[in-house]
Design the sequence.
């Protein structure tokens, strides 16, 4: 399953980079994300791991805030774009190949572990969260950002909005949006398809002994401008959940 997921993400690497890179070049979008990270992580300069960094957008935004950031990803094609984005901005981030469930780092190496839009395709979220806890220092923070991407998939409203969004994506990103579709067989094997999130994430964190668990719902209202909302809002709301390693 992991190989199939890696192939999916690699095949989507350039298309995803095109869609998401605009965050780095929009003063307002970047500011919104950086404000959220400062709210949950504080002002001190931290050693942060961005798991499933993809084209490195979150890692680069955090590094710009002065943090010492490492980004890991399973897909070399995603990492190629992360390196290009890093070079274009001349910001220092250590990008490496690595698996979210078996990280190439010693115990207690980081003050914070962040991940955005990653956990939903990780085969075993409990293993991943245990692994993220392992590399966190005591008192360190975990930040999970994700969505219920396929909720209400069969509603008429969502279907119509999706068609409208395909046209907008073609016009604004000049790409074929259908290349980003996950194979339905693979999609149906994902734990997140049947889960109610962020309740499920909260339970995983509680079971692993995290404390001070805090959920921010509908963060898309702060992190998406009108055009982003029209293009991707059909996928539903996104949430952030943060917790501290005891
Ligand atoms: C939707 S992209 C999100 C990228 C980035 N976090 C962002 O917010 O733009 C999901 C990323 O997670 C990576 N990924 C998925 N499963 C992974 C795993 N087990 N270990 C490491 N990276 C993984 C994919 O290769 C892809 O780059």
Sequence:
């Amino acid at each position: 399953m992991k190989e199939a997921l890696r192939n999916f993400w690699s095949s989507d690497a350039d298309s995803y980079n095109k869609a998401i890179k605009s965050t780095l070049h929009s003063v307002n979008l970047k500011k919104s994300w950086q404000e959220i990270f400062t709210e949950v992580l504080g002002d001190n300069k931290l050693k942060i791991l961005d798991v499933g960094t993809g084209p490195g957008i979150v890692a680069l935004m955090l590094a710009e805030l002065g943090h010492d950031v490492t980004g890991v990803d399973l897909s070399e094609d995603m990492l190629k774009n992360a390196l290009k984005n890093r070079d274009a901005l001349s910001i220092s981030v250590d990008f490496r190949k690595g698996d979210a469930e078996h990280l190439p780092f010693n115990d207690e190496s980081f003050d914070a572990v962040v991940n955005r839009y990653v956990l939903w395709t990780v085969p075993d979220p409990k293993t991943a969260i245990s692994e993220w806890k392992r590399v966190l220092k005591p008192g360190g923070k975990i930040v999970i950002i994700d969505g219920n991407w396929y909720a209400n998939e069969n509603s008429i409203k969502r279907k119509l909005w999706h068609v409208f969004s395909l046209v907008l994506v073609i016009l604004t990103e000049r790409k074929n949006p259908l290349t980003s579709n996950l194979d339905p067989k693979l999609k149906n094997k994902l734990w997140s398809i049947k889960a109610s999130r962020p309740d499920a994430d909260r339970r995983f964190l509680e079971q692993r002994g995290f404390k001070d668990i805090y959920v921010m719902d509908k963060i898309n209202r702060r992190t998406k401008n009108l055009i982003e909302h029209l293009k991707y809002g059909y996928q539903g709301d996104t949430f952030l959940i943060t917790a501290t390693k005891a």
Notes: The longest strand covers residues 136-147. Residues 2-245 form a domain with the Rossmann fold fold (CATH 3.40.50.150). The chain has one domain: 2-245.
